[in-house]
Amino acid sequence: MYTLHVNDVTAQKKDADTLLNIVLAEIDYCNEKLQVETIGWCSDVGGDSKSMQVKLHNQWEWLITVDCWTHQVSCVTKKKYLTYTEH
Questions:
Q1: What is the DSSP letter of 73?
Q2: For position 55, what pLDDT does the model report?
Q3: Is the pLDDT of residue 1 over 80?
Q4: Residue 63 phi/psi, 5° resolution?
Q5: Residue 26 class from Cβ within 10 Å (0-12 exposed, 13-18 middle, 19+ buried)?
Q6: Across all residues in the chain, what is the average pLDDT?
């Protein structure tokens, strides 16, 4: 698993279609430039990301799409830690 590019989406609409276009561009980059076959995609479990995963899977049914639970665990742990240290 590798991070490929960081995309500044500040001025873009934050929705599943925008995210899907970014993901498809990254997959094309992997296939064309790096000559690596993409077999899966991992992303956040937020609403737009989940919707993007469904669209991605509908487009390429063979592609493995998974949620990044590490991010969620990190958020919960940080929230618990901050709550605990405030008392």
A1: H
A2: 93
A3: no
A4: -75, 130
A5: middle
A6: 83
CA 75 from centroid of its chain's CA atoms? 16
Contacts 24+ apart (CB under 8 A), 23-28: 23/52, 23/56, 24/56
pTM: 0.71
Instruction: Please work out, in degrees rounded to the nearest 5, the angle formed at the alpha carbon of residue 9 by the alpha carbons of 7 and 14.
Output: 125
Dihedral of the alpha carbons of 1, 27, 10, 68, in degrees to the nearest 10: -40
pLDDT value at residue 84: 61
- List, in sequence order, every beta strand (DSSP E) within 8-87: 40-43, 64-67
Q: Compute and round to an integer the Cα radius of gyration of the chain.
A: 16
